[in-house]
Please model this.
Amino acid sequence: MTKVENIPLSRKLSAFVALSKADLAVIERLHRRRRSFASGRDMVHQGQAGQAAYILSVGWVCSYKIQPDGTRQIVDIQVPGDFLGLRSVLLRTSDHSFEPIGEIQAAEVLPGDLLEVFAQAPRLALAILWAVSRDEAMVVEHLVCIGRRDAEARMAHFLLELGSRLALVKMGSKAGYDCPLTQYHLADALGLSAVHVNRVLRQLRDSGLVTFRDGHVTFHDYNRLVELAEFDPAYLDQIGPLLK
Model:
């Protein structure tokens, strides 16, 4: 069994708070109901009520909304260490759907589990609130990306953000990272067509900045890519207060 210190959620929250043994014990209990989900079948449906939240431990998930005309807008990509549907549990109804990208493993979290965290581990509860606030900051940045950045900068920013998030759980670096997303995922996340995504990725590769091929993102010139995207990772708050 994976040591609790190496669970992605532990790695992520450790950026904000120095986790005690008691905190780690609570995180371990949050992972006691482990489930596997197959690719392509929604874990949670838009409009669904009374569902649990989840902590993603293995694999990637996309959260999305279906528009009246049947088109899909991906609102976020979840990676290991992320919560799924936490807001929906508190609001009782999910306002979007969650679809696994490949087979995934996640821990089911019930409202009572959250009450336990807040009652028994207030510092850990504060770290979870930090994680939720950070997710909200990312959604704001995504809105700016789609509304104000051109296609190349939008793609560069998206790939850089994913790299930073994965680095937090030791799954990525400034050299690159494994990425299971297809060009259709990128299109639905960035408000582009699949054809446009292909063209933009080719332009970024030909410019010697980044290559996305065979499920792997390789950064060739990280600093120039940051400059192109005007990527300021401050909104990710990955060097938090680290409360003792």
Summary: The beta strands are 34-37, 53-66, 72-78, 83-84, 97-109, 176-178, 210-213, 216-219. The radius of gyration is 18 Å. The domain at 140-236 is CATH 1.10.10.10 (Arc Repressor Mutant, subunit A). The chain is about 45% helix and 20% strand.
